[in-house]
Specification:
This protein is an alpha/beta fold and 282 residues long. The chain contains nine helices and eight strands. Helix 1 packs across helix 8.
Length: 282
């Protein structure tokens, strides 16, 4: 793919896994890359590592997606520092074995994976429009297949099941992308989402029950791909001229793919948008 010289790329969840490798790849292509993490020391360390390995320009921004106040502060910082944002790569996410609540009273998986990225995108959208042609890339997951949103229980208060809750949050990512694409049609900003593949990452860190050993077991048995492979489609959608102007699509291994039936229901997309805006305080 051609270089990204002169482009400003914001990558959330960039201190590990797919986000870190995507940030490394984009920085190596010449983009000025902003790595977003919640821990200052760790994020600075990752930024320095990416600078050394890629030779690229890497900045740091702090934001905790389990706090909507922190997300607002992150957006304010990015808007103050950067007059132009060419790509927002929305990658931050968690997987929680047991139900947990954020300081905003949100179920954590739904809050971090969907509500917080929704809010950040909304707050940065006018800058992305000013920077057009620009791109919004949302890391969703094939875990959304087979899931249906329960609008009476978006917070998974009844009968919490970890994989179902995670899958529903990823379905919300897909539906958000489609609803966003309609809203920004003709603005010069494109919005697409993707499945990165089943990647052995630190997504499950922070659980009392250890998840990471199981993730690596999948990797060793050939059921999971490397983070480098997982970062390929996010990098592709963030940078390739092949998808310039492509809008409101879902990709898997660089190819457009159909998503689940509910994801295309525009009434449900709009209801989700309204409910999420309320939860985000927009």
């Amino acid at each position: 793919m051609p270089g990204m010289e002169g482009k400003l790329v914001v990558v959330t969840g960039a201190t590990a896994g797919i986000g870190k490798e995507a940030a490394r790849g984009l920085a190596g292509m010449g983009a000025r890359t902003v790595v977003v993490g919640r821990n200052a020391e760790k994020t600075q360390g990752v930024a320095e590592e990416i600078r050394r390995s890629s030779g690229g320009s890497v900045d740091v921004a702090l934001g905790d997606f389990a706090s909507l106040r922190s997300v607002r502060q992150l957006a304010e910082s990015l808007l103050d520092r950067y007059p132009k944002i060419d790509v927002l790569l929305s990658n931050a996410g968690v997987f929680r074995v047991r139900r947990s609540i954020t300081q905003d009273g949100l179920e954590e998986t739904f809050g971090v994976n969907h509500v917080a990225p929704f809010l950040l995108t909304d707050l940065l959208l006018h800058r992305l429009k000013e920077s057009a042609p620009s791109r919004i890339v949302v890391v969703a997951s094939a875990a959304h297949y087979g899931q249906t949103l329960d609008f009476d229980d978006l917070q998974s208060a009844r009968g919490y099941k970890a994989m179902r809750t995670y899958g529903r949050s990823k379905l919300a990512n897909v539906m958000f992308t489609y609803a966003l694409a309609r809203r920004i049609e003709g603005s010069g900003v494109t919005a697409n989402c993707l499945h990165p593949g089943f990647v052995a990452t630190s997504l499950g860190s922070g659980n009392r029950i250890p998840v990471k050993p199981f993730m690596w077991l999948f990797r060793l048995t050939g059921r999971a791909i490397s983070v480098e492979q997982g970062a390929d489609t996010p990098i592709y959608l963030s940078s390739s001229p092949d998808v310039e102007g492509v809008h409101g699509k879902y990709f898997d291994d660089r190819r457009e793919k159909m998503t689940s039936p509910q994801s295309y229901n525009t009434d449900d997309q709009e209801r989700l948008w309204e409910e999420t805006a309320k939860l985000a305080g927009i």
